[in-house]
Amino acid sequence: MGGRGVRMLGMGLIAIGAFFCVRSIVFAASTDDVAQLQQSIAEKKASIHSLNAQLDTYRSKIRDLAGKSASLQNDIALLENETAMAELDLASTQNSIDQETLELRIIDGQIKDTETELAQRRAILADLLFALNKNDSQGVLEMVLSSGSISDVFDAAQQLESVNDDMKSALEATKLTRATLADRQSSHKEKVNDLATTATLLQKKADDLEMHKNAKLVIAEATQESENQYRTLMSELRAEQQSITNEVSSLQGTLQDKLRAHDADSTGETTFTWPVHGIITTLFHDPSYPFSNIVGQHSGLDIAVPQGTAIEAAAPGYVGRVYKGQQYGYYVLLIHANGFATLYAHMSRIDVEQDQYVARGQVIGLSGGRPGSVGAGFSTGPHVHFEIRSNGIPVNPLPYLPSE
């Protein structure tokens, strides 16, 4: 073969050697970092496994306690175990987030390496094609004239063509690797986002269960840690709930004529606005309600606001009842059109009187709820307990309230 053909073939072989060495050079630099990340991932997995085993133990304890009759000792033990389980659940989720984040770092590194590899291979291929195509017609003529055999020219051309095909195939494989890594990256990011949402919910649960610790103290103080007083308290609180339900139905009938006197406010659909603006700490029929064994399901929303926040009437109506109860503390019951009533509890001050008409948004009093304060009743912290009742029955307020 002539010198030109040899040079072209040699140049092609050197190029393909450099082309296929790129991957090993790129990944060699990050091997130590990847190994360290993988070690951290293994540690996170071990921690998650340990925490999940502890969670199973607490779940079993809670199932046993939930199956027992309501008692002071049982309720306090249930609160303690739920608090511990929430803390473990939060720790396990945080470890899962850390694990996914570490795996994402590995994938990010692999994508970066693949991008570098792809750029280097493209540069090598471009240089080779430029050299082969430079003065192409003269180059081929020179090869034919200087070659001792035309078959040598064809052999060289075929080998270079093979080199070109191999390099193109390797480029396509690298592109496919990059696409696969991008899919994995997207999947892990979704997992991290999902886990972050879960962690936020679990943090709320942990905050709620901090309230349960306070509930334990409230129960202990209200009963003087006596099982007999506990049962008496439970009976009194449930009687208060039933009394309110009965009275709403009675008041709804007696106040209809007065409500009709305010035609502009009482005709058509009854709409509601928020009585205060704060963080909802307990939902309607919330399974985490700490006093469910004593008074039954939670009949409204608990909205956390600072002590002394102004409470506004959620709809126009008449004050049906102003009362100082044991469970709700100081509370106001408003009667509205279309069989609706609203209740505002744990008030530190009441600014309206029974049988008084109030407009929507009118201040009816101030919030309370701080344990031991005036009007707090059975409460674990500053908040407003807000109920909407339809024909005397508590309903979920959220569908009736505007989105905040």
Largest sheet: 10 strands, antiparallel
Determine the fraction of residues in helical runs and give it as a percent range. 55-70%
Question: How much beta, percentage-wise?
Answer: 5-15%
Order of helices and strands: HHHHHHHHEHEEEEEEEEE
Radius of gyration: 37 Å
Instruction: Report the count of strand segments.
Output: 10
Mean pLDDT across residues: 80
Structural class: alpha+beta
Number of helical stretches of at least 4 residues: 9
Distance linking N and C termini: 83 Å
The structural domain count equals 2
> Tell me, what's the shape?
elongated
Low-confidence stretches: none
Q: Could you list some keywords that capture this structure?
A:
404 residues, Glucose Permease (Domain IIA), 2 domains, ten-stranded antiparallel β-sheet, 9 helices, 62% helix
Secondary structure layout plus pairing:
Layout: H1 3-28, H2 31-66, H3 72-133, H4 136-146, H5 150-223, H6 227-254, H7 256-260, H8 263-266, E1 279-282, H9 292-295, E2 301-304, E3 310-312, E4 317-324, E5 330-335, E6 340-350, E7 357-358, E8 363-367, E9 384-390, E10 393-395
Antiparallel strand pairs: 1-2, 2-9, 3-8, 4-5, 4-7, 5-6, 6-8, 6-9, 9-10
Helix pairs in contact: 1-3, 1-5, 2-3, 3-5
